[in-house]
Amino acid sequence: MVELRDPHIVKVGIADMNIVKSPSLIRTSGLGSCVGVIVYDEKKELAGLAHVMLPDSSLAKSGSINTAKFADTAIKELVNRLVIKGARASVLKAKMAGGAQMFQFFSGGDMMRIGPRNVEAVRKGLANLNIPIIAEDVGGNSGRTIEFNPKTCLLNIRTVNKGTRNI
Amino acid sequence: MSFIEKINSLHLDVLKEIGNIGAAHAATALSGILNQKIEMSVPNVRIVSFDQMMELAGGPENVVASVFLRLEGDVTGSMFFILSLPAATYFIQQMIGNDSFIFESESPHSEMSLSCLQELGNILSGSYLSSLSDFTNLYLYPSVPSLTIDMVGATISFGLLELSQVSDYAIVIDTVLEKEGDGSGAMNGHFFLLPDPDSFEVIFNSLGVATDG
């Protein structure tokens, strides 16, 4: 499909990640129980975004894994890639959004609580690397589209019912 | 080895037939509810990446009404019945007999319209799955369907969780029900059936199709 895209916005798909430098923006659409985590170096205006689907790579039932899919591996990979691009590991900060509960069920297995589990896993992964979370918008039951500007370090969050806001 | 690598064209045909039978029953049920003719498309069985899956339903940011249920029993998986907002308006109008009703302009949505959509999803997925169960002779227990009106990415990703532990691709059985004579593609409802990876072998075995060839 041919799609016209704003050259300054890098789109990240589901279970994917990417890195941008200002003036480009980075965006991911339709976060539900998934979590969008942004790790950035404020001074260098570099930011990376991962669209995480599952909390832990131990859930993987096949050999080779897509590192962007799992919270634990995605955060490590994101930091590695940022450092390769010239970010300083010691000053990295993070923002995150997502982890909603989109459907209400009477009986809930582990998979029903995947949103909160993803959020917890991202928190843990960031804490392990001593990366502080500056702002977050997690939980609830709305889908979110998020866009991060590495220049202003603001995360724009759009939902269907609750409008847009910056954190 | 990924389960997807074992799928051959005969398997895809079998899955297509499942979509065909399920959607035909659902179309009959919908036609009965709305008291008018409903067309169904030839089912599409596709192996898609998660991003492509979102595109099938109009892209991750497209806002839709979706009824989701989990399948339990011999076969496990996820099922979605997805309506565009204009289609939701149309179906609710037909169900409550009020042509001036506009679903998109409601905020928040009324109990009445949510209940209509929930029931629509319930009946249609029920007829889809009971025909599938009869055809394969497998026990299927659908969960109580749950309705949400939100972005495609946010809703469909939930049905991909089981698959995502095994693969980066999904096999989706996609069927479309449409109001007769509507060429615009706006007045339609999509069924997505996403069997969990372990369920394919069960489905194929129940129909006497070898899985190891």
Automatic annotation (TrEMBL), chain A:
InterPro entries given in the database record: CheD-like_sf, Chemorcpt_Glu_NH3ase_CheD, Cytotoxic_necrot_fac-like_cat
* Top enzyme class: hydrolase
> Keywords assigned by UniProt?
Chemotaxis, Hydrolase
Which domain of life, per UniProt? Bacteria
A single Gene Ontology biological process assigned to it is: chemotaxis
* Alphabetical list of SUPFAM superfamilies matching this protein: CNF1/YfiH-like putative cysteine hydrolases
GO MF, one annotated term: protein-glutamine glutaminase activity
What single Pfam family name could you report for this chain, choosing any that match?
A: CheD
Q: What is its EC number?
A: 3.5.1.44
Q: Which reaction does it catalyse?
A: L-glutaminyl-[protein] + H2O = L-glutamyl-[protein] + NH4(+)
Similarity comment: Belongs to the CheD family.
Q: What does this protein do?
A: Probably deamidates glutamine residues to glutamate on methyl-accepting chemotaxis receptors (MCPs), playing an important role in chemotaxis.
Q: What is this protein called?
A: Probable chemoreceptor glutamine deamidase CheD
UniProtKB/TrEMBL annotation, chain B:
**Is Hydrolase one of the keywords UniProt gives this record?**
yes
* Residues of the CheC-like protein domain: 10-45, 112-148
Q: Name one GO molecular function term.
A: hydrolase activity
Q: Which keywords describe this protein according to UniProt?
A: Chemotaxis, Hydrolase
Name a biological process GO annotation: chemotaxis
Entry's Pfam families? CheC
Q: Does the keyword Nucleotide-binding apply?
A: no
Name of the protein in its database record: Chemotaxis protein CheC
Q: Record the organism.
A: Peribacillus asahii
